[in-house]
Design a protein that fits this description.
Protein name: Aldo/keto reductase
CATH superfamily: NADP-dependent oxidoreductase domain
Helix content: 40-55%
Family: Belongs to the aldo/keto reductase family.
Mean pLDDT: 97
InterPro entries: AKR, Aldo/ket_reductase_CS, NAD(P)_OxRdtase_dom_sf, NADP_OxRdtase_dom
CATH topology: TIM Barrel
Number of helices: 11
Organism: Clostridium cibarium
CATH architecture: Alpha-Beta Barrel
Distance between the termini: 41 Å
Pfam families: Aldo_ket_red (PF00248)
Structural class: alpha/beta
Strand order of the largest sheet: 3-4-5-6-7-8-9-10
Shape: globular
């Protein structure tokens, strides 16, 4: 496993396992146990996913020492604000059956996320959280949060994959010492990701799949990745990306695939903002 060092010195695996959309509790528990058995030590969940309890049960059943695991969850916008956020974080700890979180993120930059961040800073200082950060914060919101809070976010988890590579956003994160983390590193299969001819031609040189090339590309760019699959064989495949390195020419070719736009949604779209914020009511 390769690691990144966050801006507070905490080490984080560059490759983790995400449980987004695994809503059936027994399936989620099984998937996390499978991922841990494969070798994953970083598990990413969220309050909004509705599966923190399943993740917690899997962690307990795995038998892996707590200090070897890196557990992330996120505060949803319905829990925004100092008091509500603090209460929800304690609830997340109980559901996960943990004494502390390795990483806690603000899930969306809406509602009273300033109050949420103050609660997170307080729990960070109390040792309940090893690192705090954000998710889905575009550069303008990220800079604003940094300028008016004491602790610089350790992570910004944003949509990052070959079609939306976040090059400029990553430059800004690097400027402020914020680690970029990718959600949807496979773009959820959009634009024929797993059959893409460019990735396949590169993968054939290394005897690797499109998925492995896609992950390796992001990892070599310094991006933390959390691919999701419910198939153990795919978990094994996704984990097997540390025995090869893409050449500069390969990296340059993949860089040209960047469409520089979201494959899902934009926070600059008023309709999207109306929809996401309506979920907090």
């Amino acid at each position: 496993m390769e690691y990144v060092k966050l801006n507070n010195g905490v080490k984080m695996p560059v490759l983790g396992y995400g449980v987004y959309q695994i809503v059936e509790q027994e399936e989620c528990e099984r998937c996390v146990l499978d991922a841990i058995s494969v070798g994953y030590r970083s598990i990413d969940t969220a309050q909004a996913y509705g599966n923190e309890m399943a993740v917690g049960r899997a962690i307990k059943k795995s038998g892996v020492p707590r200090e070897e695991l890196f557990i992330t969850t996120k505060v949803w916008i319905s829990n925004a604000g100092y008091e509500k956020a603090k209460k929800s974080i304690e609830e997340s700890l109980k559901k996960l059956q943990l004494d502390y979180l390795d990483l806690l993120l603000i899930h969306q930059p809406f509602g009273d996320y300033y109050g949420t961040y103050r609660a997170m800073e307080e729990l960070y200082k109390d040792g309940k959280i090893k690192a705090i950060g954000v998710s889905n914060f575009y550069p303008d919101r990220l800079i604003d949060l940094i300028q008016f809070n004491e602790i610089v976010p350790a992570i910004n988890q944003v949509e990052t994959h070959r079609f939306n590579q976040q090059v400029k956003a990553q430059e800004i994160m690097n400027k402020y010492g914020v680690q970029i983390e990718s959600w949807a590193p496979f773009a959820e299969g959009k634009n024929d990701m797993f059959m893409n001819g460019t990735l396949k031609a590169i993968g054939d040189k290394y005897n690797k799949s499109n998925a492995q090339v896609a992950l390796r590309y992001l990892i070599q760019r310094g991006v933390v990745v959390i691919p999701k699959t419910v198939n153990k064989d795919r978990m094994i495949e996704n984990f097997d990306v540390f025995d090869f390195k893409l050449s500069k020419d390969d990296m340059d070719i993949i860089a040209k695939l960047d469409k520089k736009e979201s494959s899902f949604f934009s926070h600059y779209d008023p309709k999207i903002v109306e929809f996401i914020t309506s979920l907090a009511r």
